[in-house]
Amino acid sequence: MLALSIYSIYNVLGTSDIGEGIQMFSLSRRWCREDSSKTPGDMGISTVNIYRRYYLLILIILVFLVASSILMVPARISLAGGDVRGRVELINAKIKARDSKIDASGVVAWLNPVNGTIARWNSRQKKAITQRSKRFSPHVIVVETGSEVDFPNEDPFFHNVFSIFNGKRFDLGLYASGETRPVNFTRPGVSYIFCNIHPQMSAVVVTVDTPYYAVSDQDGNFSISNVTEGRYHLMVWHERSKSEHLVDLTRSVQVTSMGLDLGVIRISEEGYIPRPHPNKHGLDYDMLNSRPGYRRP
User: Fold this and answer.
1) Domain membership flag for residue 118
2) With CB atoms 3.0 to 4.6 Å apart as the test, which of 84, 101, 163, 249 could cross-link to 224 if both were Cys?
3) Which of 50, 79, 108 is the last residue of a domain?
């Protein structure tokens, strides 16, 4: 349609053969170069007509390029996709916030493409889990495969961060206040993080092979931004829920350019029993000796 319109404009303005105009202009210039005393008029060619056709051709090409870029804008916007929103509702919840409301934070939701391929825009961001007041903060993070996570120590004593269960296995050893050590999470999975000195410290890193993920807030709300149109498998993970229940929550969803509202996702904590974890040697913690080994003067 666009090409037909340009052809019609060119035809109305004086010629129906663009190639003829280019050929005529080139021929006249070459003929004049061979004999500098001659002009295009000696060939019976109107100089005005030649330049008129030549510059008109340039104008048409510019109009075509501008029009093409305008027509491409909707496609680019469509590729950007929309936001996928949802809300988590915990059933038989075991933990409540300070205001006695159910704490629905820390639930991870992500989207895996059905066709197995996904466009990436250098979405990997370096994140951090801080050690402060004998706690890891935040308690749950989600990263894309290949991402690096820092573990800075902001306490005035040593920590020993490790993970030997499922996911990524590592042991960062003892390091002092003000220091940090990184870990690269190279494959999908759930990594449970602990400190070998302080048994009350725990965190979770969920590694997913997609840039489309989110973690719920205290009210259970989450949003995955700029999801490209297509069909995805919705995956959910929750620390206090059984794996078989989480598998049942997996479903296929269709994301459009307007995004998608997933509604309420109900997750049961029935059967969850918190249990003490062993230290990095697989043994029980020595509570008598699990005390800070270093304090800043």
Assistant:
1) yes
2) 84
3) 79
The token pair that represents 173 in the structure block: 């050893």
Dihedral over Cα of 113, 117, 121, 127: its sign = positive
Whether the CB-CB separation of 159 and 195 falls below 8 Å is answered with yes
Domain identity same for 145 and 90: yes
Between CA 182 and CA 150 the distance in angstroms is 4
**Model pLDDT for residues 226-281, shown as the tens digit of each residue:** 999 999 999 999 999 999 999 999 999 999 999 999 999 999 999 888 889 999 99
**What is the tally of structural domains in the chain?**
2
* Cα–Cα dist 53/243, whole Å: 73
What would the two tokens of residue 30 be?
A: 């070459």
Amino acid at 231: R
Distance in angstroms (rounded) separating the CA atoms of residues 227 and 259: 7
Q: For 229, how many CA atoms within 13 A lie in the half-sphere containing its CB?
A: 9
Q: Please check whether residues 264 and 237 belong to one and the same domain.
A: yes
Residue 295 lies in a domain: no
